[in-house]
Amino acid sequence: MTHELTDDTEHSTAPDAPRAVAVVGGGRMGAGIAQSFATAGSRVVIVESGADAAAAAVERVAGGLRRAAERGRLAAGVDPEEVRSRVRAVASVAELPADAGLELVVEAVPEDAGLKARVLADAERAVGPDAVLATNTSSLSVTELAAALGRPGRFLGMHFFNPVPASELVELVTAPETGPAALAAARGWARTLGKTAVVVRDSPGFASSRLGVALGLEAIRMAEEGVAAPADIDTALELGYKHPMGPLRLTDLVGLDVRLAIAEHLCRTLGERFAPPELLRAKVARGELGRKTGQGFYAWP
Predict the structure, then answer these.
(1) In what order do the strands lie in the sheet with 196-201?
(2) pLDDT recorded at residue 113
(3) Closest CA to 157 of 226, 121, 193, 205
(4) Using only C-alpha atoms, what is the Rg of the chain?
(5) Number of Cβ atoms within 10 Å of the Cβ of 86
(6) Contact in structure between 296 and 258 (CB atoms under 8 Å)
(7) C-alpha to C-alpha distance for 42 and 12, rounded to whole angstroms
(8) CA end-to-end distance (rounded Å), the chain
(9) Please, what is the average pLDDT of the chain?
(10) Which residues contact 111 (CB under 8 A, 6 or more apart)?
(11) What does residue 294 show for φ and ψ, rounded to 5 degrees?
(12) Given a cut of 80, is residue 61 above it in pLDDT?
């Protein structure tokens, strides 16, 4: 794998940035990953089922770039429209261009192990043998996903955090067959994005989800028991422990349905200490999923 600059990217691509990246899944996380790589100089192809969904994914990237520019979060001289021009979308993995020189494919579809395995296997067939494949799963077994691949040595977890462009962390999750070259490439790409990488051996919930969910579930139990109001629980963690965001507001941002699915997975694999509180189940059943529906532990505009 090489990272030489070509004539059309010499003014925009950092030396360690992958020349071309595919992101499979154009939701909030996928669009954020695409935005981050495009801002670093990579050409990005988003895969999203259907023409309308594909167009919406590109618009999410454009919206994220506009907001970043308005908030002064783009480096001096970075033109949001130029960055946006490096992003396009296709409607299926089979439509990934064979001549695109893809160095990295990041899978960012919903937390369904069967779906992720199928997407990754399709992507492996669509790209060259040197491309690195990564899953953005926050809790599923990277080792089990690797079993669906013919080249598991080129596969690992790249767990990004929401909102991706602003987050400073990437959790790199290695399966037993993950090769050192793939890990080294992922480390370099994380640096190119301005993020710090931590390396975690594949285990349920990795490090971040396991710790974060444990804290979030206890905060939900406290709200359920009436120990304190959600805003006061969050303020206690923000001011008392210097957390940038309280666990209940973070749950709203992540999505209560996502947090419930991760908790159920950790409960099955690690035991009852991760059993979801009834309040969480009730809110998900009522469709109170957090910011994306306008109501969770907080009301959102």
Answers:
(1) 87-90, 43-47, 20-24, 104-107, 132-135, 155-160, 169-174, 196-201
(2) 92
(3) 205
(4) 19
(5) 22
(6) no
(7) 8
(8) 46
(9) 92
(10) 137, 138, 139, 140, 258, 261, 262, 265
(11) 90, -5
(12) yes
Calculate ∠ Cα 270-275-279, nearest 5°.
160
In the structure encoding, which two tokens stand for residue 62, read together? 């454009």
CA-CA distance, 152 to 131, in Å (whole number)? 11
**How confident is the model over 234-280, as pLDDT tens digits?**
999 999 999 999 999 999 998 999 999 999 999 999 999 999 999 99
Span 97-147, pLDDT tens digits:
877 789 999 999 998 999 999 999 999 999 999 999 999 998 899 999 999
pTM of the predicted protein model: 0.84
Q: Residues of 157-171 as b/e, b for ≥16 C-beta within 10 angstroms?
A: bbbbbbbbbebeebb
Phi, psi of 200 (to 5 degrees): -130, 135
Decide: residue 244, CB within 10 A, 0-12 exposed, 13-18 middle, 19+ buried.
Answer: exposed
147's enclosing H/E stretch is: none
Q: Return the ∠ at Cα 167 (arms to 96 and 40), rounded to 5°.
A: 45
Q: Are β-strands 87-90 and 196-201 bridged in parallel, bridged antiparallel, or unpaired?
A: unpaired
Tokens of 199: 């390396």
Answer whether 138's CB lies under 8 Å from 111's CB.
yes
Phi and psi of 66, rounded to 5°? -60, -45
Give dist(CA 35, CA 88) in Å, integer: 11
- Three-state SS sequence of 176-194: CCCCHHHHHHHHHHHHHCC
Q: Which amino acid is at 32?
A: G
Beta strands in 37-154 (DSSP E): 43-47, 87-90, 104-107, 132-135
